[in-house]
Amino acid sequence: MTLRQKHIVAILVIADILVIVALVVLLTRPPGTSPSPHSRPQAPSALQQACQWQATQLLADAGLGGTATLTPDGPLQLRISYPLARSQTVDEAAQSVWTAFDVALALHERAAECAIFTAVEITILAHNDQPDTRIDASVSVEDLAAFHAGELSEDAFIERVTYTTNVLRNE
Description:
The protein is elongated. Helix 2 (about 45-60) packs across helix 4 (about 95-110) and helix 4 (about 95-110) packs across helix 5 (about 140-150). The protein has two domains: about 5-40; about 45-165, no CATH class. Strands 1-2-3-4-5 form a five-stranded mixed beta sheet. The model has no long low-confidence stretch (mean pLDDT about 85). The chain has helices at about 5-30, 45-60, 90-95, 95-110, 140-150, 155-160, and strands at about 65-70, 75-85, 120-125, 135-140, 160-165. It is an alpha+beta fold.
């Protein structure tokens, strides 16, 4: 065997050992654990859970079915399911964005302990016999509060809202 062949065999042996060690590490790790502790989402605190429940209750009181996720110093995410009757259009579902903004503002104003979010992100899934439509809208809490206080006109507020509509394929 030449020196070059010995080097190639040595490299292949080292590569095999590395692969075996990697497989042992992957197979001996308990199920459901992620490779990095930084990639695991943290469980919501008791305060976050209480505020999310309150937001969900406010949505229901406003006639909207959905869920809320609250991230301290981040967004309040409201995800709403909007079943369209045959006579309704997606525009009617889109009007629910305004109701959801009212819900977010009510949560922010009524429950001081829940006023820990900086933005509101709303996702409405309008569905019926046609392809579903996803409506996304977001705005900062500062702009939402300024609008409701009369410090920001409706036109100026609408310019600050990020708004998209996407037709989804039913599969």
